Amino acid sequence: RDVHRLDVVNLAWRPPQRGTGGRVAFYEVERRDEDGEWLIVATAFETETELLEQPRGQMLKYRVIAKNKAGASRPSNEVAIAL
Questions:
Q1: Nearest to 28 by CA among 69, 70, 76, 61
Q2: Which of 6, 20, 73, 80 is the most buried (most CB within 10 A)?
Q3: How far is CA 39 from the centre of its chain?
Q4: Are 8 and 55 contacting, i.e. CB atoms less than 8 angstroms apart?
């Protein structure tokens, strides 16, 4: 892992509170720019991920959605990052 890369975003989050759908199967990480639509940029099986080769020079927003057999959680709070 190259700690000097400038196009990497590291995200970590807490799992959702236990709901009616059972345990989390996986997480979808989504990204958008200020005016764009949410796009899935990663799938994670743990509560953290490293996103490589992220766009530079613009403000981007990220959020996480937990998925299980019952469906999808509400999206997490957004975090804004500019590289």
A1: 76
A2: 73
A3: 10
A4: no
Are the C-beta atoms of residues 69 and 22 closer than 8 Å to each other? yes
Q: How far apart are CA 11 and CA 9, in angstroms?
A: 6
Kindly give, in sequence order, each residue whose CB lies less than 8 Å from that of residue 5, ignoring residues fewer than 6 positions away.
52
Most distant pair of Cα atoms in the chain: their distance = 42
pLDDT tens digits for range 44-83? 999 999 999 999 889 999 999 999 988 999 999 999 999 8
Closest CA to 47 of 16, 18, 21, 78: 16
Residue count of the chain, please give it. 83
Q: Are 60 and 53 in contact (CB under 8 A)?
A: no
Q: How far apart are CA 46 and CA 24, in angstroms?
A: 9
Residues contacting residue 22 through CB under 8 Å, at least 6 positions apart: 68, 69, 70
